[in-house]
Amino acid sequence: MSCGKRLAEQLHERGYRVTAQRTIILETIAHMENHISAQQVYEGARERLPGLNLATVYRTVESLKGAGMINMLSTGGEPMRFSLCDPEHPHSHLVCRECGSIFELEAEEIEAFARRVEETTSFRIDSVHLTLEGLCQICKQKPAAS
Amino acid sequence: MSCGKRLAEQLHERGYRVTAQRTIILETIAHMENHISAQQVYEGARERLPGLNLATVYRTVESLKGAGMINMLSTGGEPMRFSLCDPEHPHSHLVCRECGSIFELEAEEIEAFARRVEETTSFRIDSVHLTLEGLCQICKQKPAAS
DNA sequence: TTCGTAGTTGCAAAGATTTGCATAAACTTA
DNA sequence: TAAGTTTATGCAAATCTTTGCAACTACGAA
Q1: Looking at beta carbons, which residues of chain B come within 8 Å of A117?
Q2: What is the DSSP track for B14-29?
Q3: Strand order of the sheet with strand A70-73?
Q4: Which domains occur in chain A, in start order?
Q5: Quick one: which of B48, B35, B39 has its CA closest to B22?
Q6: Is the model's pLDDT at B54 over the cut of 80?
Q7: A140, B129: Cβ pair inside 8 Å?
Q8: Chain B hits for A114, Cβ within 8 Å
Q9: Residue of chain A whose alpha carbon sits nearest to that of B58
Q10: Pick from A137, B48, B69, B119: most CB atoms within 10 A?
Q11: B87 falls in which pLDDT band (50, 70, 90)?
């Protein structure tokens, strides 16, 4: 089955309507190596769906996040960026505030943490948004910039 | 020593310049019970400093975050909100996506997690931004809305 | 296959946040 | 305390994101 079709099926299973816009936006995000901004999604997806509107991109990524199909990443100051969730390989982000590089972090321990929080608070946790900021191995060896 | 003076001193110790804007913005955030939006900070602080500009509020909270003096909280869709860091009592947030209520979460375990990440990745972690979303005890008992 | 309902989209406008630049203020040093 | 350097501020404009509303479309039921 094609990548787009499988994604559309997942969307449907989770109770979301499958539209051309959603399918194409999802494929656009899926085919990107790195995290991609709303503007980039818009430009990429519009090549295949010229009438697409930027507001639709924003509403769609919000839905896709609700469906647990994409990750959102916000690094200080810069616009939000998105990437496809890989259910086999959940992760959180490690952002270097000096050089901006992004590392991914396995989330098993965060999952375990979330389950523990559920027990102590009676919350039902749906999504864990974790971003760690700091200095990467290279930048932390340089003298402080300021 | 007054609250504002103590905060200004902390700011100075961390290498940031102490200006009237920063002091008043910091006090405005400190005197709020709950998390407060940029607009609210602006309105509150402007009563004491009429010439204050909204852009300054945004730049200031960015600096204050860099200084580790405030927490930022983003709940899906809504504008960013801020609160004073309490070093005796670090915390992360638990947001109910149904009723919007916010709970605070002790962060000892997150701290421990961050230290472990430092060991495995050679990163130096400065800030941990964690927001957990889900359903609170009350909302999870209601039937699904959609 | 057709119909009805509820969820989606496009558009335009509003709201939130960031940025460039000239001016002003804070802090260091003498 | 005055001068010089560096950083912060205000303003206006740009950018990013959300929202209201009318038209449209997906999809379950008939």
Answers
A1: 94, 105, 132
A2: TT----HHHHHHHHHH
A3: A36-37, A81-84, A70-73
A4: 1-86 (1.10.10.10), 89-146 (3.30.1490.190)
A5: B48
A6: yes
A7: no
A8: 132
A9: A77
A10: B69
A11: low
